[in-house]
Amino acid sequence: MTGRGGRTIKVDTLARVEGEGALYIKMAGNHVADVKLRIYEPPRLFEAFLRGRHFSEAPDITARICGICPIAYQMSAIHAIERALGIQIAPEVRLLRRLFYCGEWIESHALHIYMLHAPDFLGYQDVIEMAKDHRPVVEKALRLKKIGNRLVQLLGGREIHPISAAVGGFHKTPAKSQLRELVSDLEWALEASLETVRWTSTLEFPDFEQDYEFVALRHPQEYPFNEGRLVSNRGLDIDAAEYEDRFAEFHVKHSNALQSVVRGRGSYLVGPLARFNLNFDKLPEVAQKAALEVGLKPPVKNLFRSIVVRAVELVFACAEALRVIAEYEPPAVARVAAPNRRGVGQAITEAPRGILYHRYAIDENGLIVTAKIVPPTSQNQKRIEDDLREYAAQLAAWSLEEATWKCEQAVRCYDPCISCATHFLKVVIERD
Amino acid sequence: MSSDSKRKAPKTQSKPKIGVFKFASCDGCQLSLLDAEDELLGVVGAVEIAYFPEATRTMLKGPYDIGLVEGSVTTHHDAERIQEIRRKCKTLITIGACATAGGIQALRNWKDVDEFVRAVYASPQFISTLKLSTPIAEHVPVDFELRGCPINKYQLIELLTATLVGRKPNIPTYSVCMECKRKAAVCIAVARGVPCLGPVTHAGCGALCPSYDRGCYGCYGPMETPNTASLTSQFRILGQSGDQISRAFRSFNAWAWQFRKASEECERA
Q1: Neighbour count for residue B183 (Cβ, 10 Å)
Q2: Which tens digits make up the pLDDT trace of A144-172?
Q3: Chain B residue with Cα closest to A374
Q4: Which DSSP category does B222 fall into?
Q5: How high is the pLDDT of residue B226?
């Protein structure tokens, strides 16, 4: 791919990401001439076919945008619709939804840290190759992931596209004794997560710090899942209803996913790094201590340390699950009635990869008139391109093959979920 | 594939090669393989994962012994790609509702797809998509269709095992009702009048929704011989409108012909 002394970094199918995308970087000497993150995953047009469906169907339909984080879709849809309908949920249901989200974070973070991202740091093509030299590590990862999945399964019936979450609550809520059965596994998972923080902190991190605008939810008492104001390190502090006034989506030719910017400012970063930097004080002591012990304190500006931050969030999710289980009392009714009513509602929740925005307008028969969904990966898309513009320039001394792998690794720091973003990865580096 | 040059020499030629291919989908069905935490290391020990971009950078050229295809065909490029994949795979297995029935994205099949694209994208001219979302079997011969949205991971392991040893897979084609009976669950449709697609829906989920106090919503698609007309009348008795019944058939397996026919009859009625 080298022509006239320059080069192109080109990855036609970006591996170990969820969905299909490609990366194209054109270099002119040490200067990056062009970066394109091409999302060629075919469009599935969810926002169009949600029109005319009943609001009660939206959680099950939108779950199908992503098999990796269906709970995030269900939660954002449900909260937005409850807001449109003016529904108040029971405090016990609110707590159960936090527990449900803990399960998805544990399952998704364990998958990404060990199975999708760690092989980059250790120089393996995949976790299968890694398992040959690091079998106990991979076995631990699988057990951690399984515990997250068990939690989701108990609350939602199955790991992928769970069936129990509903507008107003859950179709069925678990008995106290059923949740108690998970305690010993979660206690093991908490210890394994603490080991994961220590283990990931020993990996080698490229020296790459950027001046990011971090965007995440912030809640007065809690590390965020379902509620809070949307804040940033540059003074943003808004309600979900103001999201579309402050953020813009635009459509670039090379991508089937829309790119997002903060109006008047540009790209921003959502996900573990943003949440950690903006909400460190809300992490439980065990997670704060684990982070500080490995020298991780906010603001973390090195993208590659996302893997350690993700491990800190694993500690949080396990500790939070244990807290919820200890406090849990089944709600008097599993779900409150949700009568048809005209209205508009917006909600933002924290998917494992970052904030997920939903808006629905509903008519008097309960049918959806318009729907808008902004997934985390489309929000990070522009930031990924901005990062690669800087990072690829640092890689001029590396061979094309090594530079390509390093760029792939950088993209994977975002844990991009391309299936979501198109409702995205191949890497191409071109050098002159 | 450009990454071929990066691969190491295969350590053994004797293990069957498996390829996992994605079309329009949510990635959930292929994730089922990674979600089989207890079986994963055993499975990858018995086969060679030759192509599975969600899990590995190694991308080996075919031919493959088994091809697992997830997702539906929605672009010209994908319509061509499936032909090439079929030529490279000795056994081709489609996994999940998108690959076996067109998926939820087949809801476009009753609408104007250009209007759909305009509704979602600011620059519709950048988007290339077909008018229909179609299952893989409408394009190439398929050796086995594994149902579900998502598939059941234990059924996937059973299907892979059976295919590798050359026996018939033990995957029942009866309805969700049978699964309810086997669990000795009280019928929510009969006892409580909850509209439930269980009688016409392919088994495989383990009667999940009825066990969670809600009616089956048909995510495994039509069973072998579904009596949709009878179920439609029952839904009407329970007070469901034509629109409601049509929507019930028109979800993740909307383009499966039995559900398609039933939904269109409700629209006309």
Answers
A1: 12
A2: 999 999 999 999 999 999 999 999 999 99
A3: B120
A4: B
A5: 97
Q: Pick the residue with more confidence: B4 or A345? A: A345
> Smallest CA–CA separation between A285 and chain B, in Å?
30
Cis peptide, bond prior to residue B124, ω within 30 of zero: no
Helix A135-156, helix A306-327: angle, nearest 10: 40
Pick the residue of B155, B212, B243, B250 with the most A CBs within 10 A to test the interface with A by mutation: B212
Residues of chain B with Cβ-Cβ distance to A405 below 8 Å are 6, 57
Q: Would you state the CATH architecture of domain A7-206+327-431? A: Orthogonal Bundle (1.10)
DSSP A427: E
Residue A402 at interface with chain B, using a CB cutoff of 8 Å = no
Q: What percent of chain B has pLDDT over 90?
A: 78
Of B28, B38, B129, the CB nearest to A160: B28
**What is the reported pLDDT for A2?**
38
What are the domain boundaries of chain A?
Answer: 7-206+327-431
Please state, rounded to an integer, the average pLDDT across all residues of chain A.
91
Count of CB atoms situated within 10 Å of the CB of A327: 10
Say yes or no to pLDDT of A14 above 90: no
pLDDT, tens digit, 9 for 90 and up, residues A225-272 = 999 999 999 999 999 999 999 999 887 777 777 788 999 999 999 999
The rounded radius of gyration (Å) of the Cα atoms in chain B is: 20
Q: For residue A53, which residues of chain B lie inside 8 Å, CB to CB?
A: 247
Q: How far apart are CA B154 and CA B145, in angstroms?
A: 15
The token duo for A110 is 């364990």
Please tell me the distance from the alpha carbon of residue A161 to that of residue A63, in angstroms, as a whole number: 6
Provide the token pair at B241. 């409108």
Residue to test with chain B: of A20, A44, A250, most B Cβ within 10 A: A44
Q: Distance (Å, rounded) from C-alpha A173 to C-alpha B219? A: 22
Please check whether residue A37 is in contact with residue A21, taking contact to mean a CB–CB distance below 8 angstroms.
Answer: yes
Domains of chain B, CATH where assigned: 2-165 (3.40.50.700), 176-268 (no CATH)
User: Does the beta-carbon distance from B37 to A146 stay under 8 Å?
Assistant: yes
Find chain A residues with C-beta within 8 A of B111's C-beta.
48-49
